Amino acid sequence: MRKSILPILLAALLTVSLFIPAAGLAADPAVSADQPGCAPQYRALADAAVVEIRGTGDMEAVVVTDPLCWHCRLGHKLLGQYPELYGSLKLLFFPRAGSIGSDMAAWIIEDAAGTERLGLLLDFAYGTLRQPKTADLDEARMLVLAQFAEAFPAMLSGTTLPELFDRLKQDHEAHVLAGAELARTAEIPGTPVLIAGGVLVMGYGPDAWLKALGEAGVCK
């Protein structure tokens, strides 16, 4: 597939940029402040996460997230506005059934972990990426990849879209699936979930998230 036909492909098969929060947790978060976030099943999420955003504060936090989840996008935007509230922010991807193709976004982001490209790819994934209009998983993945390739042409330097698809799947599918299984084992009901020190916030709410980051204690 040549890069020149990507705009035609995307225009034909993508929906308008409309995101329905049904696959995520409601913006009325449940906050647990008695250090449940320090429990082993939640610490395992932090250990498994390979994508890290550095802030200017001291707190370590983890977000269980899906790039096509509306509330996850709101959370990503909020955290970008308050880097002073954390020193390390890790992302553990938990692709939801209603966000078909979002696992490809997770593969792309994990592929850029630790590089200068990470911030731009994250902002695209959580701000511009559109939900594919298809029920076919591999087609949805390819459409997600095509959007990234159109926005970041250097991704196709020395390769083709199908070749890049295959490499990303080989390199990152197993890890994203393992992370999702850890989230299920921890009984994470949806996305997003914020774990800030010992504070666990199920769902998104700006006041709850900012309070958790501001008051979270260090796990003992």
Task: Sum this structure up briefly.
Residues 1-22 form the signal peptide. 45% of the residues lie in helices and 12% in strands.
Overall geometric form: globular
| Share of residues in strands | 5-15%
CATH superfamily: Glutaredoxin
Q: Major sheet: size, sense and barrel closure? A: 6 strands, mixed
Mean of all residue-level pLDDT scores = 87
Q: How do the SSEs run, as a string of H and E?
A: HEHEEHEHHHHEEH
* Total of domains: 1
Give the fraction of residues assigned to helices.
Answer: 40-55%
The strands making up the biggest β-sheet line up spatially as: 1-6-5-3-4-2
The end-to-end span amounts to 52 Å
CATH topology term: Glutaredoxin
Instruction: Name the poorly predicted regions.
Output: 1-5, 8-23
- What structural class do you assign from the helix and strand content? alpha+beta
Give the radius of gyration. Answer: 17 Å
DSSP, total strands: 6
Tell me, what is the CATH class? Alpha Beta
The second-level CATH architecture is 3-Layer(aba) Sandwich
Instruction: State the helix count.
Output: 8
